[in-house]
Design goal:
Blueprint lengths: L30 H27 L9 H23 L3 H25 L2 H6 L5 H47 L6 H5 L7 H7 L1 H4 L4 H36 L3 H50 L2 H6 L2 H21 L9 H17 L1 H6 L3 H54 L7 H23 L1 H18 L18 H6 L3 E8 L10 E8 L4 E6 L5 H8 L7 E6 L2 E2 L5 H6 L1 E4 L10 H6 L7 H10 L3 H5 L18 H15 L3 E5 L7 H14 L4 E5 L11 E6 L2 E6 L1 H7 L2 H20 L5
Parallel strand pairs: 3-8, 3-9, 6-7, 7-8
Antiparallel strand pairs: 1-2, 1-4, 4-5, 9-10
Helix pairs in contact: 1-2, 1-5, 2-3, 2-5, 3-5, 5-15, 9-10, 9-16, 10-12, 12-13, 12-17, 13-15, 15-16, 22-24, 26-27
């Protein structure tokens, strides 16, 4: 991918986590879903508030003509909750939800008028002393929910339009910053996005972890949570009792009620703290599991995928995504719609990472101004969207406060006449205070929605990126019950036999002919074979197929008569060593980078490998010798020094088959001669494949394979190919002429 492109949306196909399908959170689970969650929570409170009265009414031995007053509201509330859940997937069901709310209002209003028309004796006879108290809550919530639902539906439509506009702006920004941009859909191979259910599956370790100990902790946490909420629900009732006891001059009753109230509040706080302490171990274990799973998944993906991805995007998706998993768990029931703002934030980090990694390239081509302008443009886009988000946050807070206070006023206004009349209809001074406390307990968490807005946006967007990353299936996988590559003692003693049988291969997303076509050659055990050819002839493709970074489309790649596609990748790659032309080192010590070839090797073995690679003397001259840091990608070392580290690393691995991708191209003449002597001594017990650009380095190879446009043009020894006077002979003569011209250019002219 080129700089300026965002992370492509990936296909949800990871077999052990998700399957195809599901909707994106930005299309169906937005403001409407958030409102539905709030409404369903309110409905639960309504139904819980009616349970005490229902427990009495359901066991009264009578015809129960008053069933409507207690049972019908709760049945309608249940119906409304079902309808609103359906509304998440079909916005048209919102209209039906509004109809149900209107029906609830009509029934409750009719009940209120019917109760007012009853005499005190009729009310007491039918057991409806508290009916109005249980009608007020459903009535209040129904009005509030109706307003919320209409507001959310309108906001959902508006946000959809804003997202469409912002997405178009983002695509325009991508196009302007990238010349070689590619389609996100074609890069991913399928439709994008993940459903909320699939995102929850990523978070499974947080809710149902592995291991008995963690599961007991999780279940204990859930018990603490439920118990705390139940106690919090009953606390206002104790306050109401204490108020009524004070009015009745009942000192003992008031003291008992106040004690229960304080005890319930204290118990809630203690349970909340216990919940946090007990759950901490579960969160830590889940964090490690998700981070490890993500890191392992990245290493299981194909080389083709890594070549297409931008490092900045991948690092952000992994680091921020795993970190946000903890936040998503906390915000799960306060889900808000992610915005395009975080997409610009991702783009800024991607541009910064890419620019810093390619620092030298930028300096070589004096493109500092271009990079600064690209970064400045992204920052401006981010700031403009940040202002829009802050404005919407302010509007959200003001609207939220207005609705909450209006609902509180309506509820208390309905209760005031009954308190003043003291007609025994269920709302006394204690009930009035209880309603006030309930409203405060209910609405206080809603005030934090505005404060959590930005944090939830970051968490959801980062989690979505991580989920998209984990959705990708590895292109190259081991077959079920695949055996290890079988290497006997003879193979370790004299090398292995490598064979290409009629191999054809084309790179994904590239034109036909980009790889190999009907390639046939054999590398006998213990011999050296050289691959030569012009740039793009397919030399590097051969090494990638040997490592099985790709699977061939036709034919077979065999090692000791074993198809590489039928053995485990780990055993295959353990048998092959490579010294690449462009060596990339870890930002660790020299010792670490050499020992990386075999992490189980001793220090003496590392020293021996360094001596054979002719880098030991250089290491001893460093200020910290073996502990000297090599810098990012080994930039503190020269090209020749990095290649000698790579040679030492390969020697330490001690594989029976070694690929040298012009391993001495960056070395001076003296060092090159020393390395060639060391490699010649090692050829007695190894099979060697040398990818050569300078033909003089492979003159004594056992056989030379000449590639051209992905096909084998010639094959034989140096002398045989020179006598054939074909492609190889032409390349040899051309290099001799180029060297002669270069020598003539550097010779001083006679005055």
């Amino acid at each position: 991918m080129t700089r300026g492109e965002q992370q492509p949306l990936l296909t949800p196909t990871k077999k052990n986590l998700w399957r195809h399908g599901g909707s994106t959170p930005t299309t169906k689970l937005g403001w409407l879903a958030n409102t539905v969650l709030v409404i369903v929570a309110l409905d639960v409170v309504v139904m819980l508030s009616q349970l005490p009265q229902l427990s009495i009414v359901w066991f009264v031995d009578s015809a129960l003509p008053e069933w409507r007053y207690e049972q019908l509201p709760i049945l309608l509330t249940l119906l409304k909750a079902i309808v609103l859940v359906v509304a998440v997937f079909s916005p048209y069901a919102v209209l039906f939800g509004l109809v149900v709310i209107v029906a609830i209002l009509v029934v409750l209003a009719n009940d209120a008028f019917a109760l007012d028309a009853m005499t005190q004796q009729e009310v007491e006879t039918q057991g409806l002393e508290h009916a109005n108290l249980f009608n007020i809550l459903p009535l209040m919530f129904s009005v509030f929910e109706g307003v919320l639902l209409i507001q959310a539906y309108l906001k959902q439509k508006r946000r959809a339009q804003e997202l469409a506009t912002a997405k178009q702006q983002s695509e325009d920004l991508e196009t302007s910053q990238s010349t070689f941009s590619e389609s996100a859909t074609s890069a991913s191979g399928g439709k994008a996005g993940i459903s909320l259910v699939k995102m929850l599956m990523v978070l499974r370790p947080y809710f149902w972890p592995d291991g008995l100990n963690n599961r007991v902790r999780a279940m204990s946490t859930y018990c603490f949570l439920v118990t705390s909420k139940v106690l919090n629900l009953y606390a206002p009732m104790f306050m109401a009792r204490s108020t009524n006891a004070l009015v009745a001059k009942d000192y003992a009753g008031a003291l008992r009620a106040v004690t229960l109230y304080c005890a319930s509040i204290l118990a809630c706080k203690v349970l909340d703290e216990l919940k946090s302490v007990v759950y901490l171990k579960v969160k830590q274990t889940a964090y490690v599991e998700i981070a490890t799973m993500t890191y392992e998944h990245l290493h299981s993906l194909s080389l083709d995928w890594h070549l297409k991805k931008k490092l900045g995007d991948v690092l952000r998706s992994m680091d921020r995504g795993v970190e946000s998993a903890n936040s998503v768990v906390s915000y799960m029931f306060l889900y808000l719609l992610p915005t395009i703002l975080e997409a610009y934030d991702n783009l800024i980090l991607s541009l910064t990472t890419d620019a810093l990694i390619n620092y030298e390239t930028i300096k070589y081509f004096t493109n500092e101004r271009h990079e600064i302008q690209s970064y400045s443009s992204s920052i401006q886009k981010y700031q403009s969207n940040s202002v829009a988000v802050q404005a919407s946050l302010s509007v959200l807070n003001m609207s939220q406060a207005s609705i909450i206070q209006a609902t509180t006023l309506a509820c208390l206004a309905l209760a005031i006449p009954h308190v003043i009349r003291d007609d025994g209809r269920g709302v006394d001074i204690g009930g009035f205070i209880a309603i006030s406390v309930y409203l405060n307990n209910l609405f206080t968490p809603l005030y934090f929605l505005g404060s959590l807005y930005n944090m939830m946006i970051n968490a959801i967007v980062d989690m979505q990126k991580l989920s998209e990353l984990l959705n990708v299936d590895p292109d190259i996988t081991d077959k079920p019950l695949a055996p290890k590559l079988s290497l006997d003692y003879e193979a370790h003693r004299n090398g292995i036999t490598v064979e290409f049988q009629n191999v054809s291969f084309d790179y994904p997303d590239q034109n036909e002919g980009s790889g190999l076509k009907n390639v046939n050659f054999v590398i006998p055990a213990g011999t050296t074979t050289a691959l030569v050819g012009e740039t793009g002839a397919g030399k590097t493709t051969v090494s990638r197929l040997l490592f099985r970074f790709y699977d061939v489309h036709k034919g077979h790649v065999l090692i000791n008569n074993q198809d590489v596609s039928g053995v485990t990748q780990l055993s295959l790659r353990k048998a092959i060593g490579i010294v690449p032309q462009d060596t990339v080192l870890f930002n660790q010590s020299v010792l670490y980078n050499i020992q990386y070839g075999n992490m189980d090797s001793s220090f003496e073995q590392v020293v021996e490998a360094a001596k054979k690679a002719k880098i030991y003397d250089f290491i001893m001259q460093l200020p910290l010798t073996w502990n000297t840091m090599v810098g990012e990608r080994g930039l503190k070392l020269s090209g020749g020094e990095k290649q000698r580290v790579a040679i030492a690393r390969t020697l330490l691995k001690n594989p029976p088959f070694v690929i040298l991708d012009e391993a001495t191209s960056a070395l001076d003449t003296v060092t090159e001669s020393e390395i060639q002597q060391a490699l010649t001594r090692l050829q007695t017990n190894r099979t060697m494949l040398v990818i050569a650009h300078r033909l003089s380095t492979i003159r004594h190879a056992s056989q030379i394979v000449v590639l051209g446009k992905g096909s084998v043009l010639e094959m034989g020894t140096h002398d045989d190919l020179m006598q054939a006077n074909g492609k190889y002979a032409g390349m040899w003569k051309a290099q001799l002429e180029s060297q002669k011209e270069l020598d003539d250019c550097v010779q001083p002219r006679d005055e």
